[in-house]
Amino acid sequence: MANRDTEAALSTALEETLQPGCFTLTPQDLSGPPVVQPYPRSPKLLRKTEQAPAPLTQKQLSRYLEELKAEEARTEAHLQSLKKRKANLAKRVEVMKQQAKERFDVMRAALQRDEQAVKDSLDLDRRETSAKLNQIIKEWQQHLSTVRKNTVSAQNAMEPKGDAAPSMSLIEEVSCHKKPDAAEESIRLNQERFQNLLRKLQQISTDLQAQLQRKTFLLDGSNVVIDQATSHSQIAITGEGRSLCISSEASNPQSQSHPLQFDQVYCALATSPITTGQHYWEVDVRCCPAWAVGVTYCSLQRKGRDKGAKLGRNRMSWCVELRDGRLTAWHNDRHVVPTGIRGRERPGTVGVHVNYKKGRVAFYDADGMELLQEFSAKLTPVFDRVHHQFVEPLYPAVRFLRPQEGHLGPCHMEIPDLQA
Description:
Keywords: Coiled coil. InterPro entries: B30.2/SPRY, B30.2/SPRY_sf, Butyrophylin_SPRY, ConA-like_dom_sf, SPRY_dom, TRIM/RBCC. Residues 65-117 form a coiled coil. By secondary structure, the chain is an alpha+beta fold. Among the domains are: 113-125 and 189-219, no CATH class; 235-414, Jelly Rolls (Sandwich), CATH 2.60.120. It contains six helices and 13 strands. A hairpin with a 4-residue loop joins strand 1 (235-238) and strand 2. Helix 4 (58-158) packs antiparallel against helix 5 (168-174).
C-alpha cells in the first residue's frame, strides 16, 4: 500500500515538471564543463586547430612567386620539347620508311636482275633450238621438193610412149628414202635444266620466307643466360651461361642446399623471367641425343623425380622433346606429335617464341623456321587450359633426357647469342 502511494506521488511531481513553460535552458546551463569527445583527437590535429597560421611575410611571398614563375617556365619548356618530339615523329617515321625501302629495293633489284637473266637464258635457248629446227626443216623441205619432182617424173614415165621403157636411173632416184637423223631428237628446249631451275627457285623462296620470318623474330631476340645456382649439380655451364653439358664431376656441395636447385631432374632455368612483351631465343641441340626445350613458371617443383619437376608433365610448363629419336610436344602431362613437314625429323636448332600478353608459346625448327607446335588456348584444345593467359613469370628452360642405350657421344646444348 505504501509503495503505491509513493509511485503516485512521483508521477504527479513529474507531470508538473513537464508542463509547457516549466522546462527552460538558462545561460548557466550552457556554461558547464566541456563535453568530452568519445574518440580523442590526435595531438597533431589539436596543434593545428589551436595554432592559427601565421601570415606570410613579403619576402616569403616574393620567393614563392619566383618559384612559381620558374616552375611555369620549366613546364612551358618541357611542353615545347614534347610538342617538338611529336612533330618530329612523322618526319622520323618517313626517314625510317625510306631507309627500309632502300634495303628492299636492293633485294627487289637483285630479284629483277635474276628474273631477267632467267628470261634471257630461256630466250637464248629458244633461238638456238629454233635455228637448229629451221635448218632441219629446210633440209626436209628440200627433200619434199625432190620427192614431188620425182613423183611427177615417175608419173610421166608410166604414160605409154611407144616401146620405150623407164630408165633404171629414174627408178633408183624415185625409190630413194630419207631417214630422220638421230640428232633431230636432241634438238629441243633444255627442259631438265629448266625444271632444276624451278626447284632451285622454290628452295630459295622457301629459305627466303624462313629468313624473313626469322628476321622478325630476331627483333624480339632475348638474352637467355642459364642460372648455375638453381640448375642440377651435374650440369656444367660455361660460355657466359650459354653452353651446357652433363658433367660427371659434382659441383660444390654447398650449392646443392639451394632451395630452388633441381636435385634429381637434369633441368636448368634461365636467370631472367619473362613478364611482358614478345621474346625469342634458340637452343642448338645437334650434339644432344635426348632433350627437352621449353618454358616454365618459377613454381615448377625442384626436388624429386615426379611429374611436378619435369618439363611438360604439369600445368606449370610447356616443351618439345626428343626421346628415342621421336619428337613430341608436352603440356600438363599430355602430348602430341608435331604435324609439320619436318615434324618427324630431328631439328638441329629449336626456336622458342613467347607472346606473353596473348598467352602463346610456339616452337620452331629454326633451320627452316617451320612451326613444330604452338600452345595457346585457341589453337590447342587438346590440352587442358585453366587460364587463357600466363599467370606467372615465365622462365626459359632446358632438360637433358636419358639417351638411348649404347650412346657414347657428347651431350651438349648451346644457346646462341641472337643479339650479337
